[in-house]
Amino acid sequence: MLSATVVSLTSERHGMKLLLIEDSLRLQQSLGRALRHAGCAVDITGDGNEGFWYAANNDYDVIVLDLMLPGLDGLTLLQRLRAQGKTGHVLILTAKDTVEDRVRGLNCGADDYLVKPFALAELLARVQSLGRRSHGRKTSRLVIGSLEIDLLARRVMSRGQPVELSPREYRLLEFLTLRRGELVSRADIEAHIYDSEVEPMSNVVDSAVCMLRKKISAPGQPPLLHTRRGLGYVLDDNAPA
């Protein structure tokens, strides 16, 4: 059983799912608030063994990993994850700042390295960059059909006109757009978009998809958002209705 040191945070604006493994309660709180405000869904733990359990049993877009952890140190945790075939992007967060330390971390499978103390803005930028990389994107501007999504400004345009979306509708759109052409299940949407578990018989996801489809559909054009009954949803300008 996991201890009470594990904290779950979610946001209203982004489909990125993160794991923060950091034993400093002060950093847990400050980084948790900042990441949530930036639009990330975040699981937080201060113990290496708990962090490994979370990372091994869930799929995260980015893992922010401290090295000096109780229970299991960060490098060992990272090596075990890579040995299991986990390929999620990892940002090492540590006070160790020698070249040898950085090389060791990168050789163990880290994707990026940030030395304490650090600027919060830089950490957020690095997390967002890794998140885009995890979806094969190098730009913050996504285009699908007549729709244009600016990930940094969190702005949606259709044929040059702004599309007014609620924070949750925007998160849903971004989540689906980053998985363009893929079948996305209800369970995936519930895990990334909603604060708590949705009741099994609830139609909250169906309703949200229906409302989003209406808002992003261009008059006279085929819909971009398609339902695969009993399976999930696909956002694609080439998918059949």
CATH architectural group of the largest domain: 3-Layer(aba) Sandwich
* Separation, N- and C-terminal Cα atoms: 45 Å
| Average pLDDT figure | 80
* Poorly predicted sequence stretches spanning 5 or more consecutive residues: 1-14
| Percent of residues in helices | 25-40%
* Cα radius of gyration in angstroms: 19 Å
CATH homologous superfamily placement of the largest domain: Response regulator
Q: Look at the structure and give the CATH class of the largest domain.
A: Alpha Beta
The percentage of residues in β strands lies in 15-25%
Strand order of the largest sheet: 1-3-2-4-5-6
The total strand number stands at 12
The CATH topology of the largest domain: Rossmann fold
* Tally of separate helices: 8
The secondary structure category is alpha/beta
How many domains? The number is 2
How would the global form be characterised? elongated
Biggest β-sheet, characterized?
A: 6 strands, mixed
The succession of helices and strands, N to C, reads EEHEHEHEHEHEEEEHHHEE
